[in-house]
Amino acid sequence: MFESVAPIIAVRDLDAALARYRRLGFATRAYDGPERYGFADRDSVSLHLTEWAGHDPLSTAASVYLYVADADAVHASWRGAVEGRLDEPRDTPWGLREFAYVDPDGTLHRVGSPLSR
């Protein structure tokens, strides 16, 4: 049985990425060791961050999909906190209310919640 997943996201500057996720409401911490590695946790979601000098947002960026209870509420809370591109929420044909956020490291965060019936 699978119990959880934690995608590993490449970043150019770990400290900046940890601060960015903190502004988005995540609890963050750096790995206590020689590697430049960190963690961003919110509720049952865990993202791992690895600082990589060779990371190029145009060619090595990641994508993650975050299922949330209320995409509009998350969007409103992120509106003044993000650096990068934040799209407006929209209803999709696949039954979700979702928006996209692309951070300065090129990571695409799709955020969605079920449409009310």
Structure description:
The chain is an alpha+beta fold. The protein has one domain (8-114): 2,3-Dihydroxybiphenyl 1,2-Dioxygenase, domain 1 (Roll). 15% of the residues lie in helices and 38% in strands. The chain has two helices and nine strands. The strands form two sheets. Strands 5, 6, 7, 8 and 9 form a five-stranded mixed beta sheet that branches. Strands 1-4-3-2 form a four-stranded mixed beta sheet, covered by helices on one side. A hairpin with a 5-residue loop joins strand 8 and strand 9. The protein is globular and about 45 Å long. The mean pLDDT is 94. It comes from Paractinoplanes brasiliensis. InterPro entries: Bleomycin-R (IPR000335), Glyas_Bleomycin-R_OHBP_Dase (IPR029068), Glyas_Fos-R_dOase_dom (IPR004360), VOC_core (IPR037523). It holds the Pfam family Glyoxalase.
Q: Could you give a quick summary of the protein structure above?
A:
One of its GO terms (molecular function) is lyase activity. The chain is of the alpha+beta class and 117 residues long.
Named at the architecture level, the CATH assignment is Roll
Report on the biggest sheet: 5 strands, mixed
The fraction of residues assigned to DSSP E strands is 35-45%
Percent of residues in helices comes to 10-25%
Unreliable spans: none
Total number of helices:
2
Element string (H = helix, E = strand): EHEEEEHEEEE
The shape, in one word, is globular
What is the total tally of β strands? 9
Query: Which structural class matches the secondary elements?
Result: alpha+beta
Instruction: Find the CATH superfamily.
Output: 2,3-Dihydroxybiphenyl 1,2-Dioxygenase, domain 1
| Total number of distinct structural domains | 1
- Overall residue-averaged pLDDT value: 94
CATH class: Alpha Beta
- How far from one another are the termini? 31 Å
CA-atom Rg in angstroms: 15 Å
- Stated plainly, the CATH topology is called 2,3-Dihydroxybiphenyl 1,2-Dioxygenase, domain 1
